[in-house]
Amino acid sequence: MNLRNLNSSIIHRIVFELRYDYGFTYLDRYGAILNGLLPDNPGWYANEINPQSGSIHNPDYGLTYNFNIKSVSLEQGLSEKIHKLLGFVDFSKIAKNITSVVVDRLGIEQYNRIGFRVWRLFECENLDDARIMVRKLGFVSTEKIDKLNVGELEEVSINFIVKHDFCNARIAITPAVQDVRIDPGTLKQVKESVYKLPSEKRKDALLNKIRAKKAIDVFPLYSMLIDIDNYIEYPPDTEDLSIEEFIINSDQWSDSFLEKLSKGD
To answer: Where are the alpha helices (DSSP H) in 72-198?
Structure first.
């Protein structure tokens, strides 16, 4: 099975996560964490604090960094404002720099899990086309289902875990109808004529309409979603853990997997 558009797939969302125990000092050191982060990271802003979790965000790049008593995470996703994600090298540097400050302030030395997860979309003409693509990958025997004579196979979703060279990978493959994050008012303006509005509202409405159309163009309406989560349970302690190396190695393995999948290896 040749995966169509393998080289032009859309990376929809990326998440780095580090889990640990005994991060209870978060409750006492939230202010110290912000003091350690915000002055040295222009463009980042603090979100609201609560006893369960805290976060900072960078609106220019659509980045959010979350931290709490159990984990820290850095995530970025496409939206009506963010049409292209950071490269993995830049993303990994940000993950390393911010995480080093947070775990130092929390006094974390041992971890339960490190993970790097990437959602990729492969555009399809319609939902049936996406379903066919997933079936043709050959992970599920449709012949066996036909023999059971329990009904017509409507949809196949695939979920499995493999252990490879340096970590595990949880892989999920499924047909998808993309949910574009556009507020209802802006979406309504896409469908309506701007010139029906009063003249004083036309400029803002036209700008919103342009933004919404760009966002819709970025997101394929129908796709095959391949979600790859590379992870290590009980990774090396703080001194020996390289976040950058883990993210880059995870990306390289994922590219290799997709290449083999596209060739039917």
So the answer is: 88-106, 127-136, 142-148, 184-191
Of the ranges 153-157, 212-216, 251-255, which is most confident? Answer: 251-255
Q: Kind and range of the H or E element at 121?
A: strand 113-123
Please give the structure tokens belonging to residue 53.
């979790």
Residues paired with residue 67 on neighbouring β-strands, in sequence order: 54, 72
Mean pLDDT calculated for residue range 139-168: 81
Say if CB 132 and CB 142 are below 8 A apart. Answer: no
> What is the mean predicted confidence (pLDDT) over 76-94?
91
Rounded Cα gap, residues 38 and 183, in angstroms: 29
Coil/strand/helix, residue 82: coil
CB neighbours of 256 closer than 8 A, spacing ≥ 6?
none
Q: Quick one: average pLDDT of 26-43?
A: 89
d(Cα 148, Cα 234) in Å, to the nearest integer?
42
Lowest pLDDT segment from 5-14, 58-67, 89-98, 168-177? 5-14
Residue labelled with tokens 């496409």:
78
HSE-up of residue 78 (Cα within 13 Å, Cβ side): 22
Q: Report d(CA 192, CA 174) in Å as an integer.
A: 33
Alpha carbon distances (Å) from 90 to 85, 225, 240, 244, 248: 10, 24, 21, 9, 10
- Beta bridge partners, 161, equal 170
Residues 81, 61: Cα–Cα separation, whole Å = 9
